[in-house]
Amino acid sequence: MTRLDLFPISTRIAQNKLNIAGHDLAALAETHGTPLYIYDRATLDQSASDYKTALASHYPAPASVTYAGKAFLSLALAQWTQSHGLTVDCTSEGEIHIAVAAGVPRENILVHGVNKSIHDLKAAAQHAGTIVADNLSELHRITNLPIANLPTLWLRLLPGVSVSTHHAHTQTGHHESKFGMTREEILEAAQFCKENGLPLKGIHFHQGSNFRNPQPLIPAIETALDLAKEIGFSRDWHFCPGGGWGVAYHENELPHPSIENYVRGISDAVIEGCKLRGLGLPHLHLEPGRSIVARAGVAIYRVGAIKKRGHKTWLLTDGGMADNPRYALYGARYSCLTVANPGGVRTENVSIAGPYCESGDIVIEDLPMPNVKEGDLIAIPVAGAYHLSMSSNYNGARRPAVLMLEENRARLILRRETITDLLAKDVRDE
């Protein structure tokens, strides 16, 4: 796998500069400033199409794909999801209202959350088609909502099985996890729904994020199907074995994992499992997470200073942990190319850090790069997921502008924050 393979599918080198969807990244940075994030529409479209095609090929009953709002959600991204008929996963009142403002219909809004507030639940009951209940206390709160027609309910199972990820903080399915309900709690919740006339229609679980091997999903699917039979689901029910399928962030990783293999593995397990238990096939939902959006995004930074410290060379840029905290949180590994002369000979290892007052403000460590000068632009691929959605105003940072790129069009979808934005929420004591 080459470094260029990490970039969006429309990436080319033209006149010795990086070009995405026919746009010169240097020209975009000159117009919009840095740090700058771009999303490639062609890569987004291809990812959504690959999932829908694989499901149509391998699963003979109704199936759908859910976009993870927590990966990155804006009006433009929410509107894009509807061009492919995707469900939008929202985890808060705020995300629900972004989806609603974007015109996402009720039936395509699904609400997750490990500790939903009463405001979250009210918004979900008013605007969503499905609520995934995480715990028994939440079900009690739902029964007290002043809403006549509640959304469909699913129960979130804690399967007790994790997938293999690069960091413990991206695992969610193990016994000690804060997410979901045990088998006994699921059965108690199902009985509560029956006694209170709640519209229980499905089971959900999630085992982790950015994994490559679907095998640990199989025992969790078996557990969930056993529960479905015990609860009494037979027809017109829904099942979601989570998602979080991985992507490659560095050229030393294996290529981007196969969507086809992932979907086929889940489909075969659900089909065979339902047949053995005499269950009708459920409406199958997949939550691909970052694998839809991560590769579509690229972060563009400008190098401001270069420091030599013993055997270490630091490139200090204008972006870092305020717009991408993943290194600080998970030790995430990235790669990059220079925007000009991206094919240059890589003569030394460098580390790339941002301007913030934290030693953990690092983006990349020990990456072979060509000679880089102060003022040069670098482009970091696979920046589409869990960057901007976890960004902050640390050190007074202003969140960057975001562009959606298509052939012959570069559309501003989020403007850069201003000093006025930073001050807008302060209450002045006159």
Based on CA atoms alone, the radius of gyration comes out at 23 Å
CATH topology of the domain at 41-293: TIM Barrel
In round numbers, the mean pLDDT is 92
Number of strands: 20
CATH superfamily of the domain at 41-293: Alanine racemase
Per CATH, the class of the domain at 41-293 reads Alpha Beta
Beta-strand percentage range: 15-25%
Rounded to the nearest angstrom, the distance between the terminal CA atoms is 60 Å
Indicate the overall shape: globular
* pLDDT < 50 stretches: 163-174
> Helical amount among residues, as a percent range?
25-40%
> What is the SS-derived class?
alpha/beta
Can you tell me the CATH architecture of the domain at 41-293? Alpha-Beta Barrel
How would you characterize the largest beta sheet? 9 strands, mixed
Number of helices: 12
